[in-house]
Design brief:
The protein is built from ten helices and 19 strands. The chain is of the alpha/beta class and about 350 residues long.
Length: about 350
């Protein structure tokens, strides 16, 4: 019998979350962000599941966009990092990809290639990763007109740094900067909204929003879990309880003897570890569940297994399925205990964990 560590992917939940994103986007249309292998859920399966809902996809690279095409989907695909080489522009034109241009070098490539690819321009409104400075936008537009490429421009995008924090004023400042920078060209579309912006009070999302983590049930908002935002968990990470024993008071568990029992207690070993992508820094107290009952991790996570305290599930038996995150335990809770975010956990599940899909 094969090892029973699996990631179950509920595609109906994915579609439900996309519908919520569309509702919260208001008049804006929602392009589904499916980069990083569909946030670890499988880019082909995610693209196919959203095919009758999403009018546009967004990915990071040309290779990801080609994976969408290989899955049989024909919607436009936005390349959020733009072209990584000059030849990418020709491929984009041929296959209906929409690169986001953010640098002078990419403009040079566009000029040299005379590509007919439709594209977006990124405006740096304060996050300072990628994008043209607002003060440079007029010269960029003049250059596009001179090279005859302005007719292929779709619009402008920016990205928020602090939309996960409703108390932070930076989102309002970035929005104002974006509006001022693009005001001379109202005929072009605009896109600002990541997942967090869908929940940020009063935030305009303009023409296109870009929901990502919320599609997969993870929370984009500080201090709130996906279920608290009415998002449905899409991935359930499950493994088997492979051994149980009784710890006596004073006995230790695992590497470094990091957990010492303060009383007699029943414990179990679960066949999942950091080799599967479960976070090594999830320490004692991190929640899991058996038979719908919440339990806790104890000691250090190993490469292939971890230990749990079975006090919360007294009837648990060897062979039972343990939910590491899913319907009972939010992936956001686990991420918080591990000092990270749900994005990292979902994208970090390794190839040795099969994805099992349900509709």
């Amino acid at each position: 019998m094969s090892r029973s560590t699996v990631a179950r992917v509920d595609l109906d939940a994915l579609r439900s979350n996309y519908r919520l994103a569309s509702e919260r986007a208001g008049p804006a249309r929602a392009m589904a962000v499916i980069k990083a292998d569909g946030y670890g859920h499988g880019i082909a399966q995610v693209a196919s599941a959203l095919a009758d809902l999403a009018p546009k996809y967004a990915v990071a690279s040309l290779q990801e966009a080609q994976a969408v095409r290989a899955s049989g989907q024909h919607q436009p695909v936005v390349l959020l990092q733009g072209p990584h080489a000059p030849a990418d522009l020709d491929v984009a034109a041929e296959q209906g990809f929409e690169p986001v241009l953010h640098s002078g070098q990419q403009l040079d490539w566009l000029d040299a290639s005379a590509s007919k690819a439709r594209f977006w321009l990124k405006v740096n409104t304060g996050m300072n990763r990628l994008g043209f400075a607002p003060t440079d936008l007029a010269s960029v537009m003049s250059r596009l007109e001179a090279m005859g490429a302005k007719r292929n421009l779709l619009g402008f995008v920016t990205h928020f740094a602090c939309a996960d924090d409703e108390s932070d004023s930076m989102t309002a400042r970035q929005t104002a900067t974006f509006l001022e920078a693009t005001s001379a060209w109202p005929e072009y579309m605009r896109s600002v909204g990541n997942s967090a912006a869908h929940f940020f009070p009063g935030q305009p999302l303009f023409d296109w929003s870009r929901p990502g983590i919320m599609l997969y049930g993870g929370s984009p908002m500080m201090g709130r879990t996906g279920p608290e935002l009415d998002l449905k968990p899409v991935m359930s990470l499950e493994a088997q309880l492979i051994a149980t024993r009784t710890l006596r008071k004073g006995e230790a568990v695992g590497y470094g003897a990091g957990f010492v029992a303060d009383r007699e207690m029943r414990m179990g070993m679960v066949s999942v570890g950091y080799g599967d992508g479960y976070p090594r820094h999830a320490g004692t107290g991190t929640p899991a569940a058996i038979r719908g009952q919440r339990i806790r991790l104890i000691g250090r996570v190993s490469m292939d297994m971890l230990a749990v305290d079975l006090s919360g599930a007294p009837d648990a038996a060897e062979g039972d399925t343990v939910e590491l995150w899913g319907a009972t335990v939010s992936v956001d809770e686990v991420a918080s205990c591990a000092g990270t975010i749900s994005y990292e956990l979902l994208t970090g599940i390794t190839a040795r964990v099969p994805r099992l899909y349900s509709r």
